[in-house]
Amino acid sequence: MENLVNSISKYQLAINLIPGYIFAILLQRYAHIVLLEGDVLQDAFVSYFFGLIIGRIGSIVVEGLMKRFNKTYRFAPSYYKKIMAEQIDHKIETLDRQCTIYRNCCAGCCCVIIGILINCLFGDGSFFSSRKYIFIFLILTALLVVAMDKQCNYVNQRIEIATK
């Protein structure tokens, strides 16, 4: 068990465990869906798992939608170019990680909205009492989309400058 915990990097913990835990808390608070049972080890695994799922949703769905519908969003020119630029400009890796965090937070907000809607449709939740939370999470999602777009464009500019 100790080897498993030691093999997970701090970055993986930050990008998976923390968003998964926040997602579980928000889902419990606003959608009345309980994922955390109170056992620390079990809750850590559940949070990490949901963080992984949110990360994949961010990578596949959110980024895919950004590429398709946002004409100002630019993905990194090429993986090779990015790797070469990171060797020249060490700040690119940190800035790119921030872009990933924005993307995962955006995906987490979307998942919370879906959880609230599921509770309204199939649970005991009322849409009229939940609409303010849906609105808040939609505003947060929009804010995170703009932040992600700005951050990714900034990373791409640094990649272009570093590889010239």
Descriptors for this entry?
6 helices; 83% helix
Describe this structure in words.
It is a single chain. By secondary structure, this protein is mainly α. The chain has one domain. Helix content is 83%, strand content 0%. It is built from 6 helices and no strands. The chain has helices spanning 2-7, 10-31, 40-69, 79-88, 91-122, 127-162. α2 (10-31) crosses α3. The chain is flat and about 60 Å long. The relative contact order is 0.15. The model has no long low-confidence stretch (mean pLDDT 88).
Produce the secondary structure layout:
Layout: H1 2-7, H2 10-31, H3 40-69, H4 79-88, H5 91-122, H6 127-162
Helix pairs in contact: 2-3, 2-5, 3-5, 4-6, 5-6
Rg for CA atoms: 18 Å
Strand content: under 5%
Our count of domains comes out at: 1
Number of strands: 0
N-to-C SSE string, H for helix and E for strand: HHHHHH
What is the average of the pLDDT values? 88
Q: Give the CA-CA distance, first to last residue.
A: 46 Å
**Secondary-structure class:** mainly alpha
Query: Which outline best applies?
Result: flat
Q: Biggest sheet, in brief? A: none
Short description:
The chain is mainly alpha-helical. The chain has helices spanning 2-7, 10-31, 40-69, 79-88, 91-122, 127-162.
